[in-house]
């Protein structure tokens, strides 16, 4: 460790000495005491600009093509098509501008490197040019922003009445899942009711909560709207399902939502990818603490009939843990007994 620190110190010292030498040279040039304004390093640096442009540009294109399938995942939701279209349109617009400006940025130092016989052209302003490069980007960016806002408004708008509701609660360091049961209405919750047995703080005095149940896997039907109701128990988390093109923050005290329509079952995606071990998943994309990497839940997309069968087979919170019914009102307890 000490050897590494000594080596770093030596490099820093040499860098400082070199910088002092360069500053002295520049001061001499300004004072006119150094007749040699440009050295051979001027041409070398100009050439290196072009070499860097070609080498790094080639590496960027090679890597982007080589890893394309790893960052362009198959789409498994209806709105994912719109999201990807917006992404690639934005990438095309900004990519063209990026390439043009950076090619010029690296070519100009080579083309206009210092030469004793060359005199710089004084070109203070051009009103027409100023208007063009202000108005055109403004119009293009407005189009991109409005398109994104329209897509976002559709995603975060109230879900269809027939949407299947799933509540996802993030906490350090896992996700808890709650389904509303046959009535498709989630019961109330209150953070003050949170205990070791009732981690989601479900209020079982609410009749709608009696048939709620939990699941270790997020099971959803293909081709039907699904509404994720998202919240957090402690710190900021973020629900991310990449194949669904779904991302929404889980904020303590501020429930959020995201609805979508899955288009491919897990079995269909496994066949498409040729990977029998594939699973959709929810990951957390907000650094929420030391166990952040463990926040993962599997999503299983099934056919609607299989989904209905699965729902009918699930046991409610109270069926799993009858102690949760202790202390609730008699009428509600009767409903709970009927559910059993």
From TrEMBL:
GO terms of molecular function: copper ion binding; cytochrome-c oxidase activity
Cofactor binding note of this UniProt entry: Binds a copper A center.
Membrane topology, from the record: Multi-pass membrane protein
Cofactors named for this entry: Cu cation
Transmembrane region(s): 6-23, 44-65, 85-110, 131-152
Gene Ontology BP term (one): ATP synthesis coupled electron transport
Protein's job: Subunits I and II form the functional core of the enzyme complex. Electrons originating in cytochrome c are transferred via heme a and Cu(A) to the binuclear center formed by heme a3 and Cu(B).
Protein name: Cytochrome c oxidase subunit 2
Organism: Algoriphagus hitonicola
């Amino acid at each position: 460790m000490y050897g590494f620190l000594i080596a770093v110190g030596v490099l820093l010292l040499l860098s400082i000495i070199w910088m002092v030498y360069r500053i002295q040279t520049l001061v001499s040039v300004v004072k006119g005491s150094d007749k040699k304004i440009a050295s051979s390093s001027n041409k070398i640096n100009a050439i290196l600009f072009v070499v860097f442009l070609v080498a790094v540009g080639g590496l960027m294109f090679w890597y982007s093509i080589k890893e394309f399938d790893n960052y362009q995942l198959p789409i498994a939701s209806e709105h994912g098509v719109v999201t990807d279209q917006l992404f690639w349109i934005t990438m095309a617009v900004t990519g063209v501008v990026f390439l043009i400006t950076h090619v010029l940025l690296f070519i100009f130092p080579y083309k206009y490197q210092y030469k004793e016989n060359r005199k710089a052209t004084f070109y203070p302003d051009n009103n027409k040019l100023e208007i063009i490069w202000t108005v055109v980007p403004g119009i293009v960016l407005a189009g991109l922003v409005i398109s994104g806002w329209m897509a976002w408004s559709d995603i975060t708008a109230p879900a269809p009445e027939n949407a299947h509701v799933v509540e996802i609660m993030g906490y350090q360091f896992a996700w808890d899942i709650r389904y509303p049961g046959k009535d498709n209405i989630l019961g109330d919750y209150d953070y003050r009711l949170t205990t070791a047995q009732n981690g989601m703080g479900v209020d079982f005095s609410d009749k709608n909560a009696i048939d709620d149940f939990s699941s270790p896997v997020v099971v959803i039907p293909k081709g039907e709207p699904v509404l994720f109701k998202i919240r957090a128990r402690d710190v900021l988390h973020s629900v991310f399902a990449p194949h669904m093109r779904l991302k929404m923050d889980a904020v303590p005290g501020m429930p959020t939502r995201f609805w979508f329509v899955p288009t491919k079952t897990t079995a269909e995606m496994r066949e498409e990818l040729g990977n029998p071990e594939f699973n959709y998943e929810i990951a957390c994309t907000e650094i929420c603490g030391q166990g952040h990497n463990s926040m993962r839940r599997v999503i299983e997309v099934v056919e609607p009939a299989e989904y209905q069968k699965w729902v009918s087979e699930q046991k409610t919170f109270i069926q799993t843990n009858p102690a949760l019914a202790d202390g609730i009102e008699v009428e509600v307890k009767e409903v709970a007994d009927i559910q059993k």
